[in-house]
């Protein structure tokens, strides 16, 4: 017999579990279906982000950064550390423990909010008078029905044509997060967020890392000045980044992986590595959803077609996160999940795509919100620029990390902040001030007039805002 709910959420990643919680807060009877399993076969809600994305990668980045500090930077502080070694198995075990804490936290939140959780794969069966019938295929099969359905099935790693992931030598982010030891040589195809972060982890631990990028420019979505500053830092660290390459045959054998490619000059090259990470983006995950059973419309990419409010072509069916248009970011998915739950309740859910922050958690960190300088030029917008280097920031000097800068872009006529771009220490935390400012339509003068604690990295935000009017105080 079918179990009746007001709302069924298919997918327990950031968009799904947050949407389920908000719907429950608003008084709906909610079910959430998720099929992720831990190593014991138990439920592991949280999606890609928690299991093989944001959370585990940050755990490994933190561990590898501690290791690099101990080996290369402790001496600057008068700390003698000899014979420093990395126990990779223990590092990966810590990462797994952090992931489990997050999985368990989500299960607790479901109980707290009286959300019925079903462990398995959710798929459409048919439209019925009471809404939609959803099948849960897991250890036991269930049939659920609800008037409203939120699809939050996320995304999968894009496969390089002809090169399948074996997670032994040719790795997706999943395999790259679970290596049992440090490879002597590591190749990475793609210099996006995943490629740079995972390349950084294993480079710090001693791997010789080469990143091959098909585009002629480094981090094309990032402000050009910031991207150049970041690449200088990565080059100095020893990350080998080749741009404008064309990947040819990839062969995997007992000794490793061979990648044939043509470089930007048109020369034929070959890269021989122990392991290869392929990080060329992600594709919407609608596998097994059985969208055709109810006529749910997908686009040519396999993404679910939605309007500005995340409504699909079917009444009562919504979709959020990586499986729809827009940036594939966990926090974007969360905001859409909340907005959809509120729209179901007759409220006015809101997501502002112009103020979604982006972060790359390398060292230096890279973060930005709003438009880049090249976008403003392309759009014909008259603007002013203000920059401030961390080299001139007292807290950055004390930390021993003065790489990078803060950059403000403001409207030439109104002084409204149009974009803020940061490369440097704690950029991921600093960008929040810019997001708040832009949400409130602040001017650069507003930030310049606000008292920032001294000494802090946040003073660089104030100074960059002052620089828009050419009146920095410390540079």
Automatic annotation (TrEMBL):
<keyword id="KW-0285">Flavoprotein</keyword>
<feature type="binding site">
    <location>
        <position position="322"/>
    </location>
    <ligand>
        <name>FAD</name>
    </ligand>
</feature>
<dbReference type="GO" id="GO:0050660">
    <property type="term" value="F:flavin adenine dinucleotide binding"/>
</dbReference>
<dbReference type="InterPro" id="IPR001100">
    <property type="entry name" value="Pyr_nuc-diS_OxRdtase"/>
</dbReference>
<feature type="binding site">
    <location>
        <begin position="190"/>
        <end position="197"/>
    </location>
    <ligand>
        <name>NAD(+)</name>
    </ligand>
</feature>
<feature type="active site" description="Proton acceptor">
    <location>
        <position position="454"/>
    </location>
</feature>
<dbReference type="GO" id="GO:0004148">
    <property type="term" value="F:dihydrolipoyl dehydrogenase (NADH) activity"/>
</dbReference>
<feature type="binding site">
    <location>
        <position position="122"/>
    </location>
    <ligand>
        <name>FAD</name>
    </ligand>
</feature>
<feature type="binding site">
    <location>
        <position position="58"/>
    </location>
    <ligand>
        <name>FAD</name>
    </ligand>
</feature>
<feature type="binding site">
    <location>
        <position position="213"/>
    </location>
    <ligand>
        <name>NAD(+)</name>
    </ligand>
</feature>
<feature type="domain" description="FAD/NAD(P)-binding">
    <location>
        <begin position="5"/>
        <end position="337"/>
    </location>
</feature>
<keyword id="KW-0274">FAD</keyword>
<dbReference type="InterPro" id="IPR036188">
    <property type="entry name" value="FAD/NAD-bd_sf"/>
</dbReference>
<dbReference type="InterPro" id="IPR050151">
    <property type="entry name" value="Class-I_Pyr_Nuc-Dis_Oxidored"/>
</dbReference>
<comment type="similarity">
    <text>Belongs to the class-I pyridine nucleotide-disulfide oxidoreductase family.</text>
</comment>
<dbReference type="InterPro" id="IPR023753">
    <property type="entry name" value="FAD/NAD-binding_dom"/>
</dbReference>
<dbReference type="Pfam" id="PF02852">
    <property type="entry name" value="Pyr_redox_dim"/>
</dbReference>
<feature type="disulfide bond" description="Redox-active">
    <location>
        <begin position="49"/>
        <end position="54"/>
    </location>
</feature>
<protein>
    <recommendedName>
        <fullName>Dihydrolipoyl dehydrogenase</fullName>
        <ecNumber>1.8.1.4</ecNumber>
    </recommendedName>
</protein>
<dbReference type="Pfam" id="PF07992">
    <property type="entry name" value="Pyr_redox_2"/>
</dbReference>
<dbReference type="InterPro" id="IPR004099">
    <property type="entry name" value="Pyr_nucl-diS_OxRdtase_dimer"/>
</dbReference>
<feature type="binding site">
    <location>
        <position position="281"/>
    </location>
    <ligand>
        <name>NAD(+)</name>
    </ligand>
</feature>
<keyword id="KW-0560">Oxidoreductase</keyword>
<feature type="domain" description="Pyridine nucleotide-disulphide oxidoreductase dimerisation">
    <location>
        <begin position="356"/>
        <end position="465"/>
    </location>
</feature>
<keyword id="KW-0676">Redox-active center</keyword>
<dbReference type="InterPro" id="IPR006258">
    <property type="entry name" value="Lipoamide_DH"/>
</dbReference>
<keyword id="KW-0963">Cytoplasm</keyword>
<feature type="binding site">
    <location>
        <begin position="328"/>
        <end position="331"/>
    </location>
    <ligand>
        <name>FAD</name>
    </ligand>
</feature>
<keyword id="KW-0520">NAD</keyword>
<feature type="binding site">
    <location>
        <begin position="153"/>
        <end position="155"/>
    </location>
    <ligand>
        <name>FAD</name>
    </ligand>
</feature>
<dbReference type="InterPro" id="IPR016156">
    <property type="entry name" value="FAD/NAD-linked_Rdtase_dimer_sf"/>
</dbReference>
<dbReference type="GO" id="GO:0005737">
    <property type="term" value="C:cytoplasm"/>
</dbReference>
<keyword id="KW-0547">Nucleotide-binding</keyword>
<dbReference type="GO" id="GO:0006103">
    <property type="term" value="P:2-oxoglutarate metabolic process"/>
</dbReference>
